[in-house]
């Protein structure tokens, strides 16, 4: 195997990695709606179940023991 083909393989792997990186960035920031990020940002502050609307009161947990 000569050096030129090894260099070409490294260049192709680098290019494929860069394109994959750009694709991940695009998928993260461009393809999702800002509302999805806003909803996810509020999850730590949510009371009750995640799928439960805010207007319904949260069910009390049953204590075992």
Radius of gyration: 24 Å
Distance from first to last alpha carbon: 71 Å
Strand content: under 5%
Which whole number gives the mean pLDDT? 78
- What is the element string, with H for helices and E for strands? HH
Number of strands: 0
Structural class, from secondary structure content?
Answer: mainly alpha
Indicate the multimeric state: single chain
**What is the helix content?**
40-55%
Unreliable stretches: none
Helix count?
2
| Shape summary | elongated
Report the major sheet: none
Task: Compile the SSE list and pairings.
Blueprint: H1 3-29, H2 34-41
Question: What does it look like?
Answer:
- By secondary structure, the protein is an all-alpha fold.
- It is 54% helix and 0% strand.
- It contains 2 helices and no strands.
């Amino acid at each position: 195997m000569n050096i030129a083909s090894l260099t070409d393989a490294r260049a192709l792997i680098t290019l494929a990695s860069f394109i994959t990186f750009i694709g991940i960035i695009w998928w993260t920031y461009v393809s999702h709606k800002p509302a999805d990020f806003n909803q996810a940002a509020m999850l730590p502050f949510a009371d009750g179940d995640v799928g439960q609307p805010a207007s319904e009161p949260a069910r009390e947990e049953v204590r075992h023991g």
